[in-house]
Design goal:
alpha+beta, two-stranded antiparallel sheet, 12 strands
Length: 265
């Protein structure tokens, strides 16, 4: 697994205000035979990834990237879903003495660095498919990099499909007045994915290098029907039922991976 490679040690005019954003769409797909099983699955997912659990994952992310948590807001929703928003700073916030001001960089980081998570359980109206989606955004400015948390986030969810975007926005200026739109070398998000994860997933890149925009899609290579059934085992199904359910699941995964409906859907 590669680490972000600094271009060079820059002498900056002020602080590094490049914004580095890592965004995830994580999907878990399941087949439920009945409406009751569907409701049980959504209830299970809603409890497994409630606001408290998401908060714990995001606090671990902040520890991994070396950020300091300043504030946490979280909410569970009815009938399902949860959201967590977390403000972070690059350095620990210093206590102000009477009549003094907080460091400027700490004040700036209050509104420029954050981690958020939102969940979206949903189901197909007739096809027996249920999908859990988690959207996670890690946005930082300064020296800390959200890429350090990439493998932790992938491993924190039972993900069939992972869609990742990494974007570096803005510019920072050196002491000569020259703008720098990137402070580390980058060819692909895959550089920062562990070998174990690379073996498990099929990966595809769509990168726009001139915009410092990197996009990677990941879909599990191995398919075991039992991993996608809720409240039933594949041995309880006929061979025809197994084939039909597997066809539906694979189609659902491919449509999400390629971001388009297949004909006849």
């Amino acid at each position: 697994m590669a680490r972000p490679t600094p271009i060079s040690k820059l002498e900056l005019h002020g602080f590094n205000n490049l914004t580095k954003s890592l965004s995830f769409n994580i999907y878990d797909i399941c087949y439920t035979q009945t409406d009751a099983q569907r409701d049980e699955y959504i209830e299970y997912i809603d409890k497994a990834y409630n606001a408290e659990r998401l908060t714990g994952i995001l606090i671990q992310v902040s520890d991994i990237i070396g950020a300091t948590v300043l504030n946490v807001a979280r909410q569970d929703y009815q009938p399902q879903g949860a959201s967590v928003a977390m403000l972070i700073a690059e350095e620990p916030l210093q206590t102000c003495t009477e009549g003094s001001l907080a460091p400027v960089d700490a004040v700036v980081h209050l509104d420029k660095s954050h981690i958020t998570a939102h969940t979206y359980p949903e189901s197909h109206p007739t096809g027996g498919l249920s999908t859990f989606r988690a959207d996670i955004d890690v946005s930082t400015c300064g020296e800390i990099s959200p890429l350090k948390a990439l493998n932790h986030l992938i491993g924190s969810f039972d993900s069939d499909i992972v869609i990742v975007d990494y974007r570096v926005r803005g510019f920072t200026r050196d002491t000569r007045g020259r703008k720098h739109f990137m402070d580390h070398k980058m060819a692909s998000i895959q550089q920062h994915v562990s070998r174990e994860t690379q073996r498990r997933y099929q990966m595809m890149d769509v990168n726009v290098y001139q915009e410092n925009l990197f996009h990677t899609k990941m879909m599990l290579n191995q398919f075991d029907l039992d991993d996608y059934l809720f409240a039933v085992d594949k041995d309880d199904l006929s061979a025809r039922e197994q084939h039909d359910i597997e066809r539906r699941l694979r189609r659902e995964m491919e449509e999400i991976f390629y971001s388009q409906n297949r004909p006849g859907a």
